[in-house]
Amino acid sequence: MNCARCGALLPSADVPCPFCPDSLASATQNSLDEPTGSTRERANSRVSFAPGQAFGDRYTIVEEIGAGGMGQVYKALDRKLGKPVALKLIRPHVAARAGAPARFRRELALAREVTHPNVCRVHDLGDINGVLYISMEYVEGQTLDRLVHSVGHLSPRQAITLGRQICAGLEAVHERSIVHRDLKPGNIMIGRNGQPLVMDFGMAYQHGDQRLTDAGVVLGTMAYLSPEQARGQATDPRSDVYAVGLMLYEMLTGRRPPGDGIALPLALRESGERCPPPSRFAPEIPAALDAVVMRCLEREPVRRYASARDVEQALGQAGTALSSGSAPLPLARRSRSWTAVGAAVVAAAAVAAVLLAQRRWTDGPAPAGPRSVAVLPLAYEGPKEKAYLKDVLPLVMAEGLRGTKRLQVAPFASSRTFAADDDARLVARQLGVQAVVQGKLGVRGGRFDVTLRTTADDGRVLWTRSADGDIGGVLPRADQLSAEMAGILGAEGTPSRATRPTQALEDYLAGRALLEGWDVDRNYARAEEAFRKAIAADQSFAEAHAMLAMALWKHYRETGEAERAREALESAQRAVSLAPALPEAHLALGIVELGRGRSAEAAAAFQKAQDMAPADDAVCRRIADAYAALGRDAEAEAMYRRATDLRPAYWENYNSHGTFSLARGKLDAAKSAFQRVIELRPDSDIGYANLAGTHILGGQLNEAEPLLVAALRIKPGAAVHNNLGFVYYSTGRFDEAAREFRAAVEDVESSNRWGNLGDAYRQLRRPEEARQAYARAIELGSAQLQVNPRDGQERAALAMWLAGAGRCGESRKETDLATLDGAANPTVHYYAAVASSVCGDRAGAVRHALRAVEGGVEADVRTNPDLKPVLGDPALRKALRS
């Protein structure tokens, strides 16, 4: 057991921490991520707001993004500023403490005095209906402690880059005669552009203001105190320098100094105890960087660096050792005296602030040009029938760039998930590339115009170009643009030229969209048809042969038609023969071989695909999906993790892993993965919708509802409407359920969604509307069974729709067939239980409900209104309790 306040190891939860005396409890807690008070006290004083709820006349709550002992932090829309902000809502029992409002006003006043790109801006302080709040700059990203925890430790170059910017921000704080006094990784936010911001001035002290704490009182988070703070003595900028040393040590090693695993803070150790240099735990750390960290951690302030500026300069010089003797990037400065202690400190001038905000630190000569690039789909304006060109042109240009010797090009399967107007720096970071190509395509009256822009990962625009012409010449023009771009990027060799007929490319991309669900529901039969058309237009189209193999294999997996399996193998082999260096060809062959039970051949094919695309996380995801489809979970898990390791900031890797975990009933793992999706791409509905689905499967309907509402606000979609309808239906809100189910079927039809709508109308006693909805569900379900008559789950669903329509004789027949084909599927038994209950077969409903619960479908059995009549059965009640 560790102390929640300082991290000290405790023998049990009942023993008070010897390093955090009760007399100091209120003084040592002021940061939002530091818990305080009992769990019961915190729960009773929690102020909660749902997504979309108004907070006063100015703010609309978007989502909760953090919580701790002080209160909660919400992302909110500030209607006055017209942009998102972070709202720190102070718990009532904290706000009621003596001096608390004055401290928060001081935090606002101090923070407003500092304007710097590495310091978080605070906007407003107020009280709305008794809730004290602080409004501050909203930063997309994560705290430094979470970053370090997620990667283990940072490289010396990363630590220097972040450390210099933190010191620059701290320097601006010190310039205002302010000592922060609570610097720690949890108070450093790393934006999604990699820029750190110093936050939380709740403990700060400015020379000349009225002291709000008595002399000798310890302020700050115990693990990051300086020795003088721990002794209750006066502080100055060198106290913050000590905290910088602690953070650098932790960044470089993943450990708090002295690194021995004992939670007693360094400041409270015996004065003679020596702290080992960080290189003890990370040998790659150069001696110069060791020396900077150890000087920051000197126990006596006089032996430390005198200012944050000195630390920043020392870090720059240490970085020189990593860059073959090149000089560190200079900063323009102006001096200012430190009036409180007479020590000279200086602050960054405006030009330096701009440098910090707009570029990354580099120690050494700039590279000749980016070595990796992603080409995104284009924004499009024009007739719908030509919209495919927004994907064709990027695909042609990406293939051309991939043909050069120097450039690595992100797979289109990854880059196509981003929009043309996304922030290029964030896209580059998530895809792990150094440059991003974006643009806009217009088609009007048989002519096209295209505008392209290549942006470096630091925000510099490297190249822009516009072109226009007859639509028939768009692909040759894409070749020319690709060649020009390759030259600007410093590529070696001539880009390959697009030789595919336009129709072949169009059909190929349509097949990819159908098979992988880019823009439409997945449909292997229509994808198969599209790939065949592409091959008919160009017999040498190896990529189309590879994707046809995957579509055919999916067809075989769905229907059991042996001919499709043979065709899949032939198509994969044809792809390999046409393009032996094409990763997708070997990937397709591996998927088919694995399905055939030829593990050695599959492993060899997968290895070739990975050798040809060593940094392609999309290849790893496909391999993982193949293993997952055959129930080889250990291999699937390993490949999902490999995809994440290759591209740790790319949301789709976590989404795929989360989907896999969810299908295996690993709800905690799925939740963790989908939460990561939300962190990495909070402007997308996918993470919210999938996390909500995980809560639904866990029976946590109240947690699912706000996530679904948030997802709909971002992007309305059939699946989200359907799931929100399920939540309303399961909680007896049938009017709202009918509304959502209706929206779902109006967007994308399916038997399941029509059946759900029928259920809602039946519960509302609207028989004619229920009959019509059930009729459509039955029609679609029967058609699906024509494709795969042995789909037990679809047949059991059909039994439910028949029961709802009052056709109980037919329902019983389908139930019997479904439970033969899907005897091991708990969802089949759940559907059968509902069908039996609706038709008055209590014994059958109990029997199937028991099988469903035994298979893990417990939440649905508990919440379905049609099963309420059988929940009192002793055997079922016992099963649900266990």
Regions with pLDDT < 50 over 5+ consecutive residues? 1-45, 202-220, 324-368
The CATH class of the domain at 142-358, by name, is: Mainly Alpha
Could you estimate the helical fraction of the residues in percent? 40-55%
Q: How confident overall, as mean pLDDT?
A: 77
Radius of gyration: 31 Å
Distance between the termini: 30 Å
What tags apply to this protein structure?
882 residues, Transferase(Phosphotransferase), domain 1, 36 helices, 12% strand, six-stranded mixed beta sheet, alpha+beta, Rossmann fold, Phosphorylase Kinase, domain 1, globular, six-stranded antiparallel beta sheet
Q: Short summary of the structure?
A:
With 882 residues, the protein is α+β, with helices and mostly antiparallel strands. Among the domains are: 31-138, 2-Layer Sandwich (Phosphorylase Kinase, domain 1), CATH 3.30.200; 142-358, Transferase(Phosphotransferase) domain 1 (Transferase(Phosphotransferase), domain 1); 372-499, Rossmann fold, CATH 3.40.50; 788-882.
How would you portray this structure in words?
- With 882 residues, this protein is of the alpha+beta class.
- 50% of the residues lie in helices and 12% in strands.
- The chain has 36 helices and 19 strands.
- It has a six-stranded antiparallel sheet with strand order 1-2-3-4-6-5. Strands 14, 15, 16, 17, 18 and 19 form a six-stranded mixed sheet that branches. A three-stranded antiparallel sheet has the order 7-9-10.
- The longest helix has 21 residues, at 767-787.
- Mean pLDDT is 77; it is low at 1-45, 202-220 and 324-368.
